[in-house]
## 1
Amino acid sequence: MPIVRPLITDQDFQEAVDLQYKIRIFKDNHLIDSGTFVIRFTDETVVTQSEVSTLGYYKRNECDFFELRK
C-alpha cells in the first residue's frame, strides 16, 4: 500500500525535490495531476515535470500537494 503524505512546508517540498518523489495535486477536491515530480518551488508556486517537456505550474495557496511513495 502506498504512503501518502501532504506536502506543506518548504522542507517537505525540498525533500520531494531531492528524493524525486512522485506527487499528486488536488484543486477544489479534484485530482488535477498525478505521477509528476517537483523540480522547483517558491513561496507562491510549485513547478512540476512529468515528461521531458511537460511542465506544470501550480499556486501553493490554491492546491493541495501529496507525496506518493511505495
## 2
Amino acid sequence: MSHSSYCDRVNRRRALQIGGSGLLSGLSLPALLQMQAQAATEKSPPATACIMLFLEGGPSTIDMWDLKPDAPAEIRGPYYPIATSVPGTFVGEHQPLCARVADKFTILRSHSHNDNGHSTGYHYAFTGYRADFPDGNMRIPTNVLYPSMGSIVSRELGTKSAVPPYVNIPNGMGAGGPGFYGAEFAPFVIESDPVQPDFEVKDLRVKSGRPSQRLKSRQQMLQKFEGLGASAAKRSRPEMMSTYYEKAYDLITSPQARRAFDLGSEPEKVRQEYGYTSLGQCALLGRRLVEAGCRFIGIDHGSWDTHFDCFPSQEKDLFPHADRAFAALVTDLEQRGLLDTTLVVMMGEMGRTPRINGRAGRDHWSMAQSVLLAGGGIKPGQVVGATDKHAAAPVTEPVGIEDLHRTIFRQLGIDSTKIYYTPLGRPVPLVNGGRVVEELLV
C-alpha cells in the first residue's frame, strides 16, 4: 500500500478535499491541520543523486572562493577578486567560468573542523566519524568500521537500474569504503582515468559470440550450485556471495551500463566544455551515471596539497581544472533538467593556511574552508557564512562535517537519525550529531 493512502484506498489529497467540502463533519480543525502537515512532510525529497567532487589534499579556498584583498600581502597572496553573475559576490580571478554561473550554486564559507590530517581528515569528511588511526595511513579504504556517505546512500536508496548505485572515479577513494556494512555496499571502482584516450571500464568488456554464451552458461551453473545449498543456512556465505555475483552479471550484460560508461559517444563540444582533464572528464562521466540511475558518484582529484611554490601550480594545473569542471557540470545538469534533482558538492578534507609560509606555499588549515554546493534543493546564488579578515576562522556559526552530512542526507530523503548495529552489536547512527544547515536550502 502506498504511504500516501489510507486502508480504504483514499489518498490524503482526496481526504483533504472531502474534509474541505464538509463531508467529514466530525473532522476538527486541529485534526485537519495535522493531516495537512503530515501530507506536507511526505513530499518527495529534492535530490535523487549526489556527485561529490573531492579535491584531495586541501584546496586553497582563500585563493579561490574567499579572498581577502585588504589583508597584508603574506595573507592575501597574489590573486585578485573578480565579480560574479551575483551582484556583490566575488571569487578569485582564476575562477572566471564559475564566476559566470555563480547564480547556479552556493558558496558555503563557514565550513570548519579541527582535523588537520590528510587521511584522518578524509576519513572524517567521508564518514562523519573521527579516525581511530594516526594520519599517514595510506590503505584504501581507511574506514574499516564506519561506512562512507556513498555506502550509506547506496544502502538507504538502493538501485534504480543495472548501473551500480555507488561509483568511485578514477580510483578508490581514501575513505570511500562500506565499513561494517560489508562488500554489498562498497563502491564500484572504475580504476581507469576517463581522460586517457584508451579509457574503458574493463569489467564491462564482454566479447561477443561464444565467450558471451559461456558467461551465460557459467551463470546458470552457479545458480544450480547455490540452489543445492540454499537450505543449509538461513543466510549462508554462498547465498550472500550470490548477491554480488548477480549484481556483477547484471552489470556486465547490461547495455544501459555500457552506454553510461561510453564517454566516446559524447559530442566533442561537450567534452571540451568539461575540459580534457581528469577532473573534467570524471565530472562528465558523473553526469552520465546520474542519467543512468547511479545514486552517489565520488570523484577523487589529487595534488591539492600545496606546501611550496603553490601559486604557479595552482594557476596552471589546479584552479583551471576545478573551475571548468564544476561550471560545466552544473550548467550541463541544468540544461538537461537534472540539476534540481542532483546535488553537486565540491570540497576537500581541509583548506590552506591564511599565512603564506617561507616556501611560498600554504599549509594545512581545516579551521576554515569554502564548500561549493549546487542543485538538489540548494538555494542558488548565495553566500552562506563568513570568515574573519584573514580567513582564519568563521565569524558566523561554523558548519561542521556532521552538519554537512545531515544536510546532504536530508536532501536525498535519508533519515540521518537511523541507527545500524555492527556485527558486535555496537550502535552506529548514520550521523553522530550535527544539524541540517537550513540556510543552504530553498
